[in-house]
Specification:
three-stranded parallel sheet; alpha/beta; single chain; 3 strands; about 45% helix
Length: about 80
């Protein structure tokens, strides 16, 4: 599983990018969305504007799982 330190670092990079260029959204991409990843997104990735998700077999249920986890930010299947 991903460590909180990694997500904090990714979020700090997003914050830095926005400071340089506030006119473009910032994203990060993950493979699938296990519950822990969704929890980490909500807790540590507050400066990410939208999420990219690599999903293959689970793509059909991605939206349902995203909403069920209480995610409010947009996502794209990448």
């Amino acid at each position: 599983p991903h460590r909180p330190e990694m997500w904090r670092f990714i979020n700090s990079l997003a914050r830095e990018v926005k400071a340089i260029d506030p006119n473009h959204p910032v994203t990060t991409v993950v493979a699938e969305i296990p519950e822990q990843t969704l929890s980490d997104f909500k807790t540590y990735c507050t400066d990410i504007d939208f999420f990219g998700i690599n999903s293959y077999g689970g793509a059909a249920t991605l939206g349902e799982r995203w909403r069920k986890a209480g995610m409010k930010k947009p996502y794209v299947i990448t």
